[in-house]
Amino acid sequence: YWLQWRNISMCPNNTIGLTANECQQMTPSDHSTREDLLDIWHAGVRAVQPGDVIPRFVRVARGVLHIGNAEIPIERLNRILVVGAGKAGAAMSAALEETLGGTLLDRHVDGWVNVPENGISPLRKIHLFPARPPGRNEPTTRAVEGTEKILSMVGELTPADIVIALLSGGGSALMTAPRKPLTLADKQSTVQFLIRAGAPIQD
């Protein structure tokens, strides 16, 4: 399947990537394989869209906020603080605001999420903070500034408050708070060294 996909994905025009001769030689089963692979790929992308994922885990019904298996009566809530970081931060924040709905959102929600500069969009209650330039996946002074703001907001919470954390890919660079004796420069040089060395994302 991988070899088939690699060839088909390079076909020009409507068959994507093969040479004209290769395209002519494709059999119906080749086209079927291409369509199957595209269906699988699109299904995988749809499955992780925040607008579809978040409502499966967060919902409001009959005066109760449901988060996973937790049930929280809204009348007992003081504040819902949304914090987070990541390249999908804007989409996740927008989906969460939509899921929580107008009244709950307006009365109880506040938030701060660090995102890349090209991920900013206006939201009602959750502030999206531009914490690094697009394409620069390493800690920045802006990321530290945004993270310090998040820590400050979390530090003000009471037992009547809850936190919802939204984290996605890129979050480790967008949410950073070096502890002494480490500095931001130390973290930046380490990340740059790992990138140059071809280290996998797990490292």
Characterization of this structure:
This protein has 203 residues and is of the alpha/beta class. Helix content is 45%, strand content 20%. The chain is built from nine helices and seven strands. The chain has helices at residues 2-8, 20-25, 28-47, 50-57, 89-100, 102-108, 141-155, 171-174, 184-196, and strands at 58-61, 64-67, 70-73, 79-85, 109-116, 126-132, 161-167. The chain has a four-stranded parallel beta sheet with strand order 6-5-4-7, with helices on both faces.
Main attributes?
three-stranded antiparallel β-sheet, alpha/beta, 203 residues, disordered N terminus, 9 helices, single chain
Brief synopsis:
By secondary structure, the chain is α/β, with parallel strands linked by helices. The protein is 45% helix and 20% strand.
Topology:
Blueprint (H helix, E strand, L loop, with lengths): L1 H7 L11 H6 L2 H20 L2 H8 E4 L2 E4 L2 E4 L5 E7 L3 H12 L1 H7 E8 L9 E7 L8 H15 L5 E7 L3 H4 L9 H13 L7
Parallel strand pairs: 4-5, 4-7, 5-6
Antiparallel strand pairs: 1-2, 2-3
Helix pairs in contact: 4-5
